[in-house]
Design goal:
Elements: H1 14-24, H2 31-43, E1 48-52, H3 55-65, E2 73-77, H4 83-90, E3 94-98, H5 109-118, E4 124-128, H6 145-151, E5 155-159, E6 167-168, E7 171-172, E8 179-183, E9 196-200, H7 203-213, H8 219-226, H9 247-258, H10 260-278, E10 284-285, E11 304-305, H11 313-322, H12 338-344, H13 352-360, H14 372-386
Parallel strand pairs: 2-3, 2-4, 4-5, 5-8
Antiparallel strand pairs: 1-9, 6-7, 8-9, 10-11
The structure holds pyridoxal-5'-phosphate (PLP).
Residues 54-56, 80-81, 83-84, 128, 159, 161-162, 183, 185, 196 line the site of pyridoxal-5'-phosphate (PLP).
Length: 387
């Protein structure tokens, strides 16, 4: 058997919508992107949405609109993809890297409070909702991430690249924090190859991000002019970026958006089977789930090989590959990456939980059309290797 780590399936209206765009004669951002924005803002219970060409662009626009600049400090977990941190570098600001909780692979209230004490001048937090499980934003004791950030004036940019659709105690992702960024990259929960989305409830931030998304063109002025006689006049009020999403991409993303819940529930079933079947393996630590299964987007299924294992993680992945099973690793933590390690003199000892995760973590296939026979084969193979 040959099972890839990820396989894309288009079970919605992807081809129909792309055909509509091609036949309309207008290929860049227009009605499909606008409709996708409306769909997201209403789903997320946020007021505004902006379609962009990647989640990286979304994160860049988000931090820029919050005034992050040279001298600003932004907290980011080491346990993430480089995009979460590189956007802080784009703006000349300083990323402050922190450890995560071993079980959830996420920042929690305790880690956040400790970092704020160390860095009282923190401006913002890039909150990564790892694997599709929303981080502990609220708690019964009233000291969740949202409260702590509010109390200390720390802005929250949600990196929800893994987390659509997802929620936390009925609060939809996108409805909390200052700005939320989604990814439609090729192997994310919904995709159009390359793309992303921003949602926010703040009209000022929305206006700034909209301006910077397209070259700093003053749209209001532009629209005022184009509606009259002078069709080609517009003003540039900033050196902006080129981050808009084309209607071709938006068409695919829209079709995927419509089936997102169906795709999510298929991944949930796969995750539940993994958890039930793999719990008997003492050498595997299964992901700690702190939300209801229906609120998890299940982007990743990432067990951790613990110290009881007789073989290393790398040996395991080689054996799985020899048996035709594709896997991935999320992540090699950023404090181990040359650029960040050297620039900020990062030490492994400051990231003990990420270090334990790094030694043993791996991600198993969890794409919606993974067949039952394939799932069974993966589980049997793992059991055979690890018993
Ligand atoms: C994929 C990913 C991104 C970047 O998404 P793009 O759409 O590829 O720019 C950002 N953060 C995390 C955690 C990701 O996994």
């Amino acid at each position: 058997m040959k099972i890839p780590y990820f396989r894309f399936t288009a079970t919605g209206k992807e081809l129909d919508y792309v055909k509509e765009v091609l036949e309309s004669g207008w290929l860049t951002s227009s009605s499909k992107a606008a409709y996708l924005e409306e769909s997201f803002s209403s789903y997320c219970e946020a007021d505004y949405a902006l379609a962009v060409n990647s989640c990286t662009s979304a994160l860049h626009l988000a931090l820029e609109s919050l005034g992050i600049k040279k001298g600003s400090k932004v907290l980011v977990p080491s346990w993430t993809f480089t995009a979460s941190a590189e956007v802080i570098e784009y703006l000349g600001a300083e990323p402050i890297f922190c450890d995560v909780n071993y079980g959830s692979c996420s920042i929690d209230a305790e880690i956040l409070a400790e970092q704020i004490e160390k860095h009282p001048d923190l401006s913002a937090l890039v909150l990564v909702h790892f694997g599709g499980q929303v981080a502990p934003i609220t708690s019964k004791q009233g000291n969740g991430i949202l409260n702590i950030c509010r109390k200390h004036g720390v802005k929250i940019v949600n990196d929800a690249a893994h987390a659509f659709p997802a929620s936390f105690e009925n609060k939809k992702i996108g409805s909390f924090g200052d700005i939320t960024c989604f990814s439609f990259y090729a192997n994310k929960t919904i995709t159009c190859g390359e793309g992303g989305m921003i949602v926010t409830k703040d009209s000022g931030l929305y206006k700034r991000m909209k301006l910077m998304r397209l070259h700093g063109i003053d749209r209001d002025v532009w629209e005022r002019f184009t509606s009259k006689t002078n069709q080609s006049d517009y003003d540039i009020v900033e050196a902006g970026f080129k981050y808009n999403l084309s209607d071709i991409n938006a068409a695919v993303a829209l079709a995927q958006f419509e089936i997102a819940e169906d795709l999510r529930s298929k991944r949930q079933k796969i995750a539940e089977t993994y958890m039930e079947e793999l719990q008997s393996l003492d050498s595997l630590d299964l992901p700690e789930i702190n939300v209801s299964h229906e609120e998890h987007s299940w982007h990743l299924f990432n067990p951790v090989l613990n110290t009881l294992s007789k073989i290393s993680r790398d040996e395991l992945l080689i054996k799985l590959a020899e048996n035709g099973i594709g896997t991935s690793i999320h992540y090699k933590p950023l404090h181990r990456m040359t650029f960040y390690k050297e620039k900020y003199d990062l030490k492994k000892e400051d990231f003990p939980e990420s270090e334990s995760l790094w030694k043993g973590c791996f991600s198993l296939p969890i794409f919606p059309d993974l067949q039952e026979s394939e799932l069974e084969y993966i589980i049997d193979t793992l059991k055979e290797i690890l018993r």
